[in-house]
Every structure is written in C-alpha cells, then in structure tokens.
Design goal:
This protein is an alpha+beta fold. It contains four helices and seven strands. The chain starts with 11 loop residues before the first strand and ends in a 6-residue tail after the last strand.
C-alpha cells in the first residue's frame, strides 16, 4: 500500500523528541535539490531556527511504519521574512513552509494528499487561504502547486533569493 497522509495517521505536533528525525527530512530534501542543481533550501534551514519553530508549535509531521513520512511548518500569520504587501494580511491564512516528504516515499502522491488534508483542516478553522512561496529558480515546484490550484500572487525577494508567492483559497466545505 502506498503511504498517504491518512494512512500515516493524523498530523502530529512535533516536539523536541522528534526534532532530529524531522530535521533529517529537511537535510535530505536539501541534498536532493542540490543534486538537481536547484538552490531551494540551499543552505539547509538553520537547525536553531527550526528548533524554535518546533518549540512554538508550528511544526507538524506524519508517521508511517514507525518512521517520519513528512513534515510541514504552518504559521498562522505571515512569517517575518516575507515582504510586506505581497498578500492581504487581513485575510486569515495558514502559511505553508518547509513541506518535505521522505525521499523513500517520493512520487507516491503523499505531498498532494498532505496538501489536501491541510486544505480540509484550514477550511474547518478560521483560515481562508493557504499561502506559500517557491524559489523562482524551481519552475517544477511552481507548476506542481499551480496544478493543485494555487495561483501566483507576486514575485519578490526572500533573504536575497528570488521567490514566487502563491496562494489557494479554502472556504468552509469547499475542500
């Protein structure tokens, strides 16, 4: 059976206990992207910052067969590294960051199922948008999200790198 967000069980809050195992997914993703010649996540996201996000309750993960299948960082407000004026900040949103799926389960549709589950979860909350960015040098990733219904809102800069900002509306009962 192909693992999915639902077969892995519920979305779990990361704790300090899982920090190393979850962070290893980011390291694995960085190495894979670097091997493809893509600058996304290069260098890997700083461990200290990730640990703070885990402590603050923003990092989630899924398990399958006892191993971490995937992770995502969800912010209820625009992260400070996003430029002002990209989105209508008055619209409640979840900001999807650092979505990573174990390379052992890549191409199995896990990312799509996780994003769909996040849409359902967001639609049952106060959020009305899912928002994210992709590195402008990674057109595959922009196309991936566009095919899932995300629309390009703007282009801009994140810490010296060109980025594409995207969003997808989620309405109660629509996902």
């Amino acid at each position: 059976m192909t693992p999915s967000a639902s077969s892995a069980g519920p979305r779990l809050h990361a704790t300090e206990r899982e920090l190393g195992e979850i962070y290893a997914l980011l390291e694995e993703g960085t190495a894979w992207l670097r091997g493809k010649g893509l600058a996304q996540w290069d260098p890997v996201y700083p461990l200290e910052r990730f640990a703070r996000e885990v402590s603050a309750g923003y990092v989630w993960y899924w398990r399958v067969d006892g191993s971490v299948l995937a992770t995502v960082t969800l912010f209820p407000e625009r992260p400070e590294y996003y430029p002002d004026g990209v989105w209508q900040d008055s619209v409640p949103a979840w900001y999807v960051c650092r979505l990573a799926v174990s390379r052992t389960h890549a191409r199995a549709g896990v990312g799509r199922r996780i994003l769909h589950q996040l849409e359902l979860d967001a639609a049952s909350s106060e959020a009305r948008m899912l928002r994210l960015d992709v590195t402008a040098s990674n057109p595959f990733l922009e196309r991936y999200y566009r095919d899932l219904g995300y629309r390009r809102v703007a282009e801009g800069d994140i810490k010296g790198g060109a980025a594409v900002f995207m969003e997808k509306p989620v309405e109660p009962g629509s996902a």
